[in-house]
Amino acid sequence: MTRMVKGAGVPAPVEPLQIAVCRAKAPGAPVVDVFALLVAADGRVRGDADLVFGNQPHHPSGAARHLGTAPDDGGPLVADWLWLDLAGIEPGVDRVVVAASADGGPFGRVPGLDIRVTTMTGAPVAYFGVDDATTETAFVLGEFYRHRGGWKFRAVGQGWTTGLHGLATDFGVEVADTAPSPDSAPAAHGPAVDGAGGTRDGAGFGPDFVPFVRKGNTHKTFAVPPTVPAGPALLQVELEDDAGRVQVKLLGPSGDRGEELWRGDRNRIRARFLVQVPEDRPLRLGIRASRWWTVKLMPVSHAEPFTGHAHGHDLDVLRYDGPADDLHYRVDATDGADAAFGLGAVFPGEDPMTPRPAPAPEAVGGTATGVVRLPGPALLQVRGRAFWSLNAASGPPVLAEYGSGRRAGAPVEIVNPLPGSPVILEYHLVAGLTSRFYEATETDEYGQERALLFAHRDGMRGRVLLFTDGRAATRVRIRSVARWTLRLLPLESARPLVAGVRGKGTDVLVHRGGASVVTLTGSTGRAPYYHVEAGAADAIAPAPVLEAAGSRPARGPVPGEPGVPAYVTVRCEGMGWTLGLTGVDGPRRFAESVEGHGYEVVHYTGRPGEARVECGEDRPVELWLLDKHFAPDRRIAAGPGRHEIQPGPVQVRGSGRWRITVGG
User: Please, is 112 exposed, middle or buried when counting C-beta atoms within 10 Å of its C-beta (0-12, 13-18, 19+)?
Assistant: First the structure.
């Protein structure tokens, strides 16, 4: 972990982070309350909602949370936890300040005070120990601040003798003279506290806590740490190789054989389901696997939102936050005796471990359908070993469906249900013996074949654009998979592209904010390949935005005009990613020299002249001059050497290190 001195700064990864403010246990020590302030460029909060603390634990943006004090595990330290997603911080926020107040004495009497920043997988980011506190009763330990399109963390170590009132007032928080401290504010304004020391999430489905992540290979048995409080929790299990198998068991208190929770193989490589963390002992899990796996235990509030349409082939938990609606579900039971499906719903205030079952679907041939009424927000639990899909009646419709689990073989004719307009092609493939090398192609009316999907680029499920060239029909052939389903959706089904949007695998997003710079941050672990392209709905050849491998951030231009939708396709083989977003002023500006690594957007502010491009011979870069809408205008360099450069935004395309030097 990076140990810092006061005033030092270190880069902060643009991904979810956990922040612990720790101190040593000592009799009679002051009570410490930890909070976060989301501060604008003028050094002040924009409103009271930008103060995140124990009784206001969730920021409206969803990018910052106060997770409370970790349950006492008998160790020498006590810690308060914050959760922060830098990619989701709103553009109007310039800094996120981590601070604390002391009740019952100054910080000089708080032993071992420090702040620790890690990623959600436990990878260290920063450590700063405070050893010079004296009479201060409020303290800023550190802050996250924007820097050259990314974020950095600074060790601050600044105190106030006027307590919380003085610190908050300096940051623009309106604090009345009689205002209670975060710890003593009325509980009615904050979440209820459960018996294990965790806090209930807003929907009342379970306690809030810092997610627990464990990675391993082959067989492991382990206990979840006591920082995960008793109550319902969301368990996600994922294989990192679609050729592997995994079995997950819930073990008894003595590590006995226990109950099987899930069994996955190459057809089912990820599942999400609920488990009950016991009150009297730690949760114990047993993993038997043939490949690398990841287990993540999260609050139930971290379930993925259901926004009108979802599909899958296994266990899943979805969060519906909308108004009353009818939920239509469909099952394509094409796997014979192995096919099974169940749907349950839990409403606020109910026990998530006992969902209300939906009516049994009505079978017609190999397909079964049903409908359930949702009176409002609910937690949806799907248990399926078959193709299933969920559609809200008020959501965008499914325009057409092909395959329904049919085997690969002859090409299928796909007709555009919206002539003259592109549509979203949603695909779901089930692995065959050679599925890691599958290929999907489309053929035009002249018999010309071109690639549509690749296994190592697009994964087994996702969304891409189809009919961007205006054709009325196409023929699609899918090779080397066991079964497949294709669905056509309207463009309205695309998720909005906003700062901090997260996704997995291949997906289509829509952006209406005009020319922008998008930053992609990939998952840690194995190095996946990411490809992003963007363009208007009727673009015959969407422009390449960026390519990346692994977790190193990459940046690229999203062309467009305000109000005119631009569609962005992220292509990746089943791995997670986060997209950040900045405006046309986001690129780094330079007049003489700039350097970087991988895909980037920079802005040259000097005079027209000659620029020297330096890069590795094995990893050359291209430079593209962009127009005022950030669309590629012309290529000005392909590889190292001297090239003419004009003032304006420039896209760098490459996978290695590079430097641009003007003159000299």
Answer: middle
